[in-house]
Amino acid sequence: MDADKAITTKRAQVREILEQRIREDLHAGDVLDSERQLVSQLGVSRVTVRQAIADLVDEGLLERTQGKGTYVTGPRIESRLHLMSFSREMRARGLVPATRVLSAHQEPAAPEVADALEIEPGDPVVRLERLRLADGTPMAHEIGWYPCAQFPGLLDHPLEAVYDLMVERYGIEATRGEQSVHAEAAEADHARVLGIARRAPLLVQERVTYADGLPVEHSVSRYRADRYRIHSTLLPRDEIR
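RESULT FIELD:
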């Protein structure tokens, strides 16, 4: 066996050992042993360990966070483009959802928010910032704006599940959404909240949600691109009704 083939074989063996540990002994969010520890445990070179880890990062089983270490990733979510609350979507996939309210306050509507909600600039809106998690893994950072005229006293209620609150407290049910998606690199604040590296890829969803033709929510959600994938079904134009 030549030297190159031997190195490749060791790399594959280390990758297999690490993959078995990930699947059998570790959980999402657990930190992997350091390269130094793995070299000592497995009796291979640091280069081989580093290459095997890189393979598992590429496969989505591990993720590196600068200055913190290498972690086992959480679930990768495939989302269809439909109008459903985050919590219900995660439960439908057998995951445990959680929401942390990071901030909530009333403010004058900025021009772009007013335009989306079809109100006047300066009209009062509630700005709600939340972190969305699935099985304990941060998935999305979301900011939503809600017109105070339609939701008086909104800040007096728990805000983890806004769509449920709309129905139960205000008798308003979301019936339609207009959404666009684009990619961007994570800025420092978003990276910190989501527990990812700065400049890591994000999927940004901007949505206006309607209830019987009236805008009731404008939101911007930033999803981790390593944990979230969008699925849609495309039809020929003559089949769309």
